[in-house]
Amino acid sequence: MSTSLVDSATLPDAGSRAESWRSVLMRCVRRQSNRIRTRRRIRRAVGEVKALDDRMLADVGLIRSEVEHVARHGRLPAPAVGAADDN
User: Is residue 79 assigned to a domain?
Assistant: First the structure.
């Protein structure tokens, strides 16, 4: 004969477990939906910028090969003025 040290009042009931699984599932669905929305927004922005001619891209400081990188990751910070000539 064994005695249990676990009080049944401290164990979660099946209803709260099911609710927690539902909330986890919904969080995953929302996260994936946001990722898809972000990818579509970036793809649309890349298409719009790539539609510009080379002269217009140069006006905003881009070359065609940088468009997708800048849309996805942003621009790299500009080098500091005179940083290369510290000799």
Answer: no
